């Protein structure tokens, strides 16, 4: 029988931090790969603000720039044009490690580490001890309904389970900006709905912004804002995408 996800506890610092602060703000953001005649403009002239509490679905055809934009929002990639900053994160994600949670497209677990160790990793990289990071990892696995996988190695679990572990890892440090690149692409409809429930519930409790890239209309219909990318351009009026708090 499927293990039911448990309700998220609201951390104490959240209540004081619920204002509609911009978590990421960019102006005329661009990312071009390569140079000269072989260059590819993956993101072109994107201006937008995402506030704490926002719920955004990022849609668009394959190759339209969704992954590139998410990586720019995460601070994992550098823009080749325009500006980006993270007002609610001390200016840049690295100023407060762990305040951005990222679920990558495709497998991203370290094969030599157990599921629980993979989930604890972001906390340990930010300086937490095993004594505090492993219980937090277990709590995060419990939220996703997969605490029974804690001691498994990535090679022993299914692709869908691995995706849920990746989501548990992204939630473990209680991010204020949660970015998920097609997090439900490998999941059946029931599991996809459950995973989205957990993401929404966790981001509600954390007061975090959530941006999900998805090709699934059922997923995007459940988010308040829908952005569409086409050839690197964010269609419609760029602007503020905030949470209703
Ligand atoms: N590292 C890279 N080097 C060169 N070109 C790249 C690189 N990463 C992405 N691109 C190109 O940038 C464009 C946007 O790619 P991106 O992965 O952001 O699109 P996407 O909308 O996320 O696609 P998908 O839905 O298939 O994941 C594509 O033309 C892609 O080939």
Automatic annotation (TrEMBL):
<dbReference type="GO" id="GO:0005524">
    <property type="term" value="F:ATP binding"/>
</dbReference>
<dbReference type="InterPro" id="IPR015854">
    <property type="entry name" value="ABC_transpr_LolD-like"/>
</dbReference>
<dbReference type="InterPro" id="IPR003593">
    <property type="entry name" value="AAA+_ATPase"/>
</dbReference>
<dbReference type="InterPro" id="IPR017871">
    <property type="entry name" value="ABC_transporter-like_CS"/>
</dbReference>
<dbReference type="InterPro" id="IPR017911">
    <property type="entry name" value="MacB-like_ATP-bd"/>
</dbReference>
<dbReference type="InterPro" id="IPR027417">
    <property type="entry name" value="P-loop_NTPase"/>
</dbReference>
<keyword id="KW-0813">Transport</keyword>
<keyword id="KW-0067">ATP-binding</keyword>
<feature type="domain" description="ABC transporter">
    <location>
        <begin position="24"/>
        <end position="245"/>
    </location>
</feature>
<keyword id="KW-0547">Nucleotide-binding</keyword>
<dbReference type="Pfam" id="PF00005">
    <property type="entry name" value="ABC_tran"/>
</dbReference>
<protein>
    <submittedName>
        <fullName>ABC transporter ATP-binding protein</fullName>
    </submittedName>
</protein>
<dbReference type="InterPro" id="IPR003439">
    <property type="entry name" value="ABC_transporter-like_ATP-bd"/>
</dbReference>
């Amino acid at each position: 029988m499927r293990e039911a996800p448990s309700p998220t506890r609201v951390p104490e610092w959240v209540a004081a931090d619920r204002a509609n602060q911009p978590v990421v703000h960019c102006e005329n953001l661009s990312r071009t790969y390569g140079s000269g005649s072989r260059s590819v403009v993956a993101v072109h002239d994107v201006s937008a603000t995402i506030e704490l509490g926002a719920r955004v679905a990022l849609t668009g055809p394959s190759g339209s720039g969704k992954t590139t934009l998410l990586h720019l929002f995460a601070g994992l990639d550098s823009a080749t044009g325009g500006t980006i900053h993270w007002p609610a994160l001390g200016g840049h994600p690295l100023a407060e490690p762990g305040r951005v949670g990222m679920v990558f497209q495709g497998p991203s677990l370290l094969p030599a580490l157990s599921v629980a160790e993979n989930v604890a990793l972001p906390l340990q990289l930010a300086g937490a001890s095993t004594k505090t990071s492993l219980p937090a990892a277990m709590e995060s696995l419990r939220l996703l309904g997969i605490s029974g996988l804690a001691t498994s190695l990535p090679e022993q679990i299914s692709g869908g389970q691995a995706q849920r572990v990746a989501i548990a890892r992204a939630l473990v440090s209680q991010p204020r900006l949660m970015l998920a690149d097609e997090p439900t692409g490998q999941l059946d409809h029931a599991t996809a709905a459950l995973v989205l429930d957990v993401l929404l519930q966790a981001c509600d409790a954390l007061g975090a912004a959530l941006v999900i890239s998805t090709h699934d209309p059922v997923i995007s219909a459940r988010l308040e804002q829908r952005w569409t990318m086409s050839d690197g351009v964010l269609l419609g009026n760029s602007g503020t995408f905030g949470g209703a708090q």
